[in-house]
Amino acid sequence: MAIPIPTDSFKVGFIGAGKMAESIARGVVNSCVLPASRISTAHSELHRREAFSSFGVQIYDRNEQVVENSDVVIFSVKPQVVQKVVSQLKPLLTEKKLLVSVAAGIKLSDLQEWAGHGRFIRVMPNTPAAVGEAASVMSLGDTATKEDGDLIAELFGAVGRIWRADEKHFDAVTGLSGSGPAYIFLAIEAMADGGVAAGLPRDLALGLASQTVLGAASMVIKSGKHPGQLKDDVASPGGTTIAGIHELERGGFRGILMNTVVAAANRSREFSKR
To answer: Does residue 1 belong to any structural domain of this protein?
Structure first.
């Protein structure tokens, strides 16, 4: 029987102290959902320890210490080593602990088998958690309760938006939102380079490209309009925008983006088959 977690004093531990764990932890602290004193992790490398300690997170020497001092344990390690790490910690992973995995491509059924119980929640976040703009999706394991789900929704909701979905969609989620920030970073860089090629100073070009992407995304979310309609609204007959769109279409822009998401989703499926 799962023991309810005290929502006013629970502690979160990260197994794995990489960039994703840092993004989530930093975002949670910045949003004031949890003080840094109630978050912990462990790592052997000095630069990763310093990254977390710089905003007050407790640093341990061993993963076992993290688990022992946490109510919620978030596995944020590479997919290739999840089984090894969970299996090593299994004696400490009682059903008193709510377990969470953010590892791409690793199924709940496998996670539950390795841990020895089903109080597991799978979450696919992305790195904009560090600035409070994550896009996350969650799916509950066999014995995770509604209250468990609400707690994780609050935790990850504090660093962006979170959706609940059937686990069968997670490979596609990984390909779209999990890997998606990298696609947008590349687009911003390319747009800025285009501005420089057209004669703009580098700083101005990068600022304009970044703010344009942010503004366009905000319009889609806040207006409720389909992006195709918003595109049509700005593309005047014979104007500059339609000339640029024509070039994108000639280069297969939409097809390339679609193929990019599918390629990343297929890679996630490869992880789940191992």
So the answer is: no
* CA–CA separation, 167 and 256 (whole Å): 26
Residue 19 annotated in ligand binding: yes
Residue 252 among known ligand-binding residues: no
Whether pLDDT at 63 is above 80: yes
| Residues 23 and 92 reside in one and the same domain | yes
15 in a labelled binding site: yes
**Residue 3 in domain:** no
Q: Residue 142 CA to chain centroid, in angstroms? A: 23
Distance CA 187, CA 192 (A): 9
Give yes or no: residues 167 and 261 share one domain.
Answer: no
- What are the tens digits of pLDDT across the range 200-233? 999 999 999 999 999 999 999 999 999 999 999 9
Among 31-35, 87-91, 141-145, name the one with the lowest average pLDDT: 31-35
CB atoms within 10 A of CB 157: 16
**pLDDT at residue 8 in the model:** 64
Statement to judge: residues 91 and 214 lie in one domain: no
222 is in an annotated binding site: no
Give me the domain span that covers residue 191: 180-272
Q: Is 18 annotated as a binding residue?
A: yes
The whole-model pTM stands at 0.86
CA-wise closest residue to 4 among 97, 84, 67 = 97
Domain boundary among 173, 208, 232: 173
Tell whether 204 and 156 lie within a shared domain: no
Residues 231 and 204 in one domain: yes
Is position 160 annotated in a ligand binding site?
A: no
63 is in an annotated binding site: yes
Q: Are 104 and 191 found together in one domain?
A: no
Closest CA to 210 of 136, 135, 128, 124: 128
